[in-house]
Inverse folding.
């Protein structure tokens, strides 16, 4: 029985060779995902703001939101997903909450997130 549990753990627990950057709610990210269509594989970019991070360990997920043609699009992505090719942090956001669901009701300039200033040493 222990061998079976270990086997399933190896198959579901993805070991990440790629080091992912530290990010939190309010940050603007570009995520490059591997998309498989039949036998072909391509990279698709998704750029938006992180509105929440939830879960712990292998079940950790984050929700990213962008506006596409005037319509809000949200995507929930598991942090340990093998489909993630690369994560790039574009801007660090200055927010005081960990869940930014209030952005769903805002449009235009009201939906902007201020940039957090960091000192480079």
């Amino acid at each position: 029985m222990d061998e079976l549990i270990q086997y399933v753990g190896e198959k579901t627990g993805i070991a990440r060779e790629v080091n992912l950057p530290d990010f939190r709610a309010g940050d603007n990210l570009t995520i490059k995902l591997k998309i498989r269509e039949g036998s072909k594989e391509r990279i698709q970019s998704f750029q938006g703001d992180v509105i929440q991070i939830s879960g712990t360990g292998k079940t950790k997920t984050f929700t990213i939101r962008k506006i596409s043609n005037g319509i809000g699009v949200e995507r929930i992505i598991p942090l340990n997903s093998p489909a993630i090719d690369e994560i790039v942090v574009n801007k660090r956001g200055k927010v005081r909450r960990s869940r930014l669901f209030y952005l769903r009701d805002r449009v235009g300039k009201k939906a902007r997130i201020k940039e957090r200033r960091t000192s480079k040493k």
User: Anything to note?
Assistant: The longest strand covers residues 40-54. The chain has a mean pLDDT of 88. Helices lie at 2-12. The beta strands are 28-37, 40-54, 61-68, 71-78, 84-91.
